[in-house]
């Protein structure tokens, strides 16, 4: 059915006015919006952050109602913690006291073509941190094979290598009672699994993990869900918990990041995104919103 002339324009203007009006709401309504944001289940990625700053991660998490973090531990600190377990135990104490769910995060695209049937040494080292220093809730693997220069010419081999790595990492996590997840681009649904007729790279990835992170980075809830529609349908077919990703990183593609848009807009959109996702395919599996990442979220919150 054809829309009446002007409706699309009026909707666009209405949306723009609604966004602009966030800062004009009465104090009581702004407080109600902030309360709604606090109630959104949130997962914060923590990249390139030295242990000395981990108390700041805990403070921001407390302030913004974040209950889970995915922590990327700098290589030099992994080695230091394994050489000096008490120092590592002390470094993680802020997370213990706060009661946050802490996942460890690691990944390198090169791993998918370097003996993907064996665990990379860096990942083995991280698992030793889990065994000797701090018991993580899960492992989040972030490899993104599409960033490799030969993705266009050697895609089938890279998909096979990635799926093999996922299977190996999942098995290693299972024996250590760790949940295994990976960061997945939603357009993996359009990339075939070369070894399973009719299955996508996204479908086959889900078969190898306990939960997933969907990197649907858009700064508009409707556009984010439209981008992820195929991924959400795949999650409905294979129901595992998933986190839906948003970004606060500067320099991302236009329309993808909340960098520079202000905290009120960010809070409003996360509440709206949660409401839409809870009415979307895969609703029972929705675990919360994954925010990429700590340093830029802190800048947004303090602007």
Architecture overview:
This protein is an alpha/beta fold and 303 residues long. 46% of the residues lie in helices and 14% in strands. It contains 13 helices and 8 strands. An 8-stranded parallel β-barrel has the order 1-2-3-4-5-6-7-8, surrounded by 4 helices. Helix 4 crosses helix 5. The longest helix is centred in the middle third of the chain and has 21 residues. The N terminus is likely disordered.
The shape, in one word, is: globular
Q: Helices and strands, in N-to-C order?
A: HHEHEHHHEHEHEHEHHEHEH
Nearest-integer average pLDDT:
89
Helix count, per DSSP?
Answer: 13
Low-pLDDT runs of 5+ residues are: 1-21
The class by helix and strand makeup works out as alpha/beta
Helix fraction bin = 40-55%
Report the count of strand segments: 8
Strand fraction equals: 5-15%
Largest sheet: 8 strands, parallel, barrel
Q: Identify the strand order in the major beta sheet.
A: 1-2-3-4-5-6-7-8
Radius of gyration: 20 Å
The first-to-last residue Cα distance is 45 Å
List the helices and strands and how they pair.
Layout: H1 7-20, H2 27-39, E1 42-46, H3 54-64, E2 68-71, H4 75-83, H5 85-91, H6 93-98, E3 101-106, H7 121-132, E4 138-141, H8 155-175, E5 179-184, H9 201-206, E6 211-214, H10 221-227, H11 229-237, E7 242-247, H12 263-277, E8 286-292, H13 294-302
Parallel strand pairs: 1-2, 1-8, 2-3, 3-4, 4-5, 5-6, 6-7, 7-8
Helix pairs in contact: 2-12, 4-5, 4-7, 10-12
Give descriptors for this structure:
46% helix, 8-stranded parallel β-barrel, 303 residues, single chain, 8 strands, alpha/beta, disordered N terminus
